[in-house]
Known about the structure:
234 residues; alpha+beta; 2 domains; 7-stranded mixed β-sheet; two-stranded antiparallel sheet; elongated
Amino acid sequence: MSNRRSKFPPAPEKCWEDPEGTKRVWALLARSERNDQHGGLGGGYRHLRFDLVSVADVYDKDKRRIRNSLADATNDLEINSQGDKLEPDKLYAYAVEYRGVHHAGIRRLDAMHKFLSTLEKKLERERREHGDVPDFAHYVVRVARALDCHYIIEKRAGNSWDSYDDSDHRYTGLRSDGKFNGLECSWKVQQLVRDLWTDDDRKAAKAHAERKAEEERARKEREAAAAAEAGESA
Length: 234
């Protein structure tokens, strides 16, 4: 029996529609969400998520054929994050996790655990070597590099029910001279993060911050005046 470790990440599964000899590569499919209905303290939620998908590595975008992975270890895998309407350009609580899992037996659970454990070990080695990530974009860079992702994909037509419809997507390549391009990945994620907030969001956030600062200044003045009054009457 071979003692060689399994390749990480595993090669994407073939798609029956691909011509003979087609190579499939991993990619991150971006999904953004704005929800102002259930935010706390007058704010609203912002999410930027990336699904792990595979695409045919060909130039013709109409033949890339975005496919969700069906393998136990990579199906339903995503990079998740959360933000607040009142804090533009900031995302937190980011992590790689499995979402939307409808069923999982012991074999799949074992495969998922092994996959995430291996990924986390790779990310921990990066953390020890380069320090903590300063923001979500840098976190995505490290995950995308570990998963050997070749593209970030954005859906330009937002009215289709099918996220994997091949008709209208923008591809950002993450390879340069055969190597992973972390700068390109970081730039694209930062752009997607900025797009979660509108100009009106930024104006509202600025007004909120100024109002909170004024309330804090008034509170300190009241406390100082009360302390002075207490000192005079002592």
